[in-house]
Design a protein that fits this description.
homodimer, alpha/beta, Aspartate Aminotransferase, domain 1, 7-stranded mixed sheet, two-stranded parallel ribbon, 41% helix, 14% strand
Chain lengths: 360, 360
């Protein structure tokens, strides 16, 4: 039984996108594939606000998150950790055999620019990881302020995960001076999971040339070599690239500014709905994500039961928290193709369930 | 313009499989996803003839080929190299920072059991890689003979790539004593690319526990941890797992023995067709693949032009050789859903093109 996903990824996929996936396959070394890659590249660069190449990786985002560590870290990596995914990135760095330190913040807090500055000034690191939008806590760090700090450290390669913010708001890679920016397809792009995007600066490519043990599958230099032929190093997930082409058409029809405004509006509708019930945001409002709202379950609602009712009665699903804040928070995504109307439909369904679960 | 693929991967995908991909997504941490994984696991184990778990990797086969090296090689890996992909595996091992040696054979020759024995007897290696069916040259090594050799070396973890033979013939992992057996989805399984399968013995898992720098994305122990929950470590390519479930239904309806016999028959039809023209097989017939025929272009046909005609006039495509034997060979796949009828249709189309290109 199909039910509509308002979880923060994978999210709801349109019929058009599903259909795009069924386009007949071509060989990945054929002219037809080259033409496909050539066609989508300028649009991908626009979405990343970059002149650097955008590579396609057949993997989930974790693949390129790990790959980036293996490619650019020689001396040591500073992992800014303020939620489940950014905490884990530190662990992954260690598992790659790298020297790594955590710059730790409480969950729900953003990455603090001053603390970043202080940590980088030690000179211990030649790479840094930041998750722009921590999906686990719905917390969005101030990437502009952080990038000002990063600019002071030209020897540090910055790796910024925009998995759940990419394409929902402008994140201007080149202007911000981000070296490696990566994203997944199953968040705001509303494509089924299995494809990751990454764009890599010349500085990061130069660094990669000097790093041993990069391997092959996520090697930046291999991506670059095949990028120059409008191909991918190994067999790509072609059906999702068809879906990507279709989604790019959608984005172009809507216009980027409209797309950004729509995400903001959707987000605000949910936030105000939550406030009306008396729910508080898990992060400080100023740092609350614009692609999802992570609410504290401060009204002590049986949120799992609410979600089950939502699924059973309305074929919809939200999320009941992630990692150590599971059950203590709930998350509603507003990414992708949602509109104020579809968000209001979800909320009105929740309205017909929630009251009976609210404690008197 | 859609054209039918008789290249050795990706291959032709059925309408049923394409449609399966469009099933509505579920969250990968949901009960629905767990149920999906639970359902397909026993069938995957049957296809691999194993009691070991079969993991699903969101990547092309190269991902798990690299991952296997990172997981089980401590002392050194012997890479049996007899074609483009197996040669490259040696290179990939080096790129992972491992001590590696090539056991080199001419392209078109199988991996020789005696040579394997001699190399392993040096005691320099704790891991070995073999590509069962070298797609680049259409050469199939004798896995039974090789596995007899491997059994003499219990401290060596064997990694066998069955990317382009898996499910087209019985390769009995447990009986053969293979430790790590891996395959892709876009070959005989006739699923669009982007999903890889791997099954790992207890011995290989124990080894992995002792190896540093395994990373996260392809870490066997992570796969195992999530396998136990019927999940995957990171967000999986759900749509292709739907396609896999659909393909498993097809395989069960047909029956394994029928499936194997059909692949053999298809293969023979093509082979005899080639012989009739005077084409020779690139490998020795005894070691020629049963999922594709790689013919020498000994009649010096402009095979690229033939293929263009085939595409233009009949919406079909074969392959004109790979790597250093491009143009000097051509390859016709008979993997997947093809039947004697569909193979004969291809060949009859080629018959109406070839004569005008044959030198007098």
């Amino acid at each position: 039984m199909a039910y509509k996903l308002f979880i923060p990824g994978p999210i709801e996929v349109s019929e058009k996108t599903y259909k795009a996936m069924t386009e007949h396959l071509v060989g990945h070394r054929s002219k037809d594939f080259v033409a496909l890659m050539e066609k989508i590249q300028p649009d991908l660069q626009k979405l990343f606000f970059t002149k650097d190449p955008v590579y396609l990786s057949t993997s989930s985002s974790w693949g390129v998150m790990e790959g980036a560590i293996r490619n650019v870290c020689k001396k040591g990596v500073l992992n800014c950790a303020n939620g489940a995914f950014s905490d884990k990135w530190y662990d992954v760095s260690l598992r790659c055999g790298k020297y790594a330190e955590e710059l730790k913040f409480d969950w729900g807090k953003p990455v603090d620019p001053e603390a970043l500055d202080k940590a980088l000034s030690t000179g211990k690191f030649d790479a840094v990881t930041i998750i722009h939008n921590e999906t686990s806590t719905g917390t969005m760090s101030d990437i502009c302020a952080l990038s000002e700090v990063l600019k002071k450290y030209p020897d540090v390669v910055s790796i910024v995960d925009t998995v759940s913010s990419f394409s929902a708001m402008p994140i201007k890679k080149d202007e911000l001076g981000i070296d490696v920016m990566l994203a997944g397809c199953q968040k705001a792009m509303a494509i089924p999971p299995g494809l990751a995007f990454l764009t890599v600066s010349q500085k990061a490519l130069e660094r990669a040339k000097t790093v041993e043990g990069r391997g092959y599958y996520f090697d930046f230099l291999e991506f670059q070599k095949f990028y120059e032929k409008n191909q991918t190093p190994s067999t790509p997930v072609i059906s999702l690239i068809y879906a990507l082409r279709s989604k790019i058409e959608d984005i172009n029809s809507e216009g980027l500014e409209n797309r950004y405004a729509r995400h903001l509006e959707n987000n605000k509708i949910v936030r105000e709905w939550g406030y009306n019930y008396g729910f508080e945001l898990f992060p400080e409002e100023k740092y609350s994500s614009i692609t999802l709202n992570c609410f504290k379950n401060n009204l002590d609602v049986d949120i799992v039961a609410v979600n089950e009712q939502l699924k059973k009665r309305f074929n919809m699903m939200i999320n009941c928290g992630y990692g150590k804040i599971k059950g203590k928070t709930f998350r509603i995504s507003n990414m992708g193709d949602e509109t104020p109307e579809t968000m209001r439909e979800l909320l009105s369904n929740l309205d017909s369930i929630l009251p009976e679960y609210l404690k008197k």
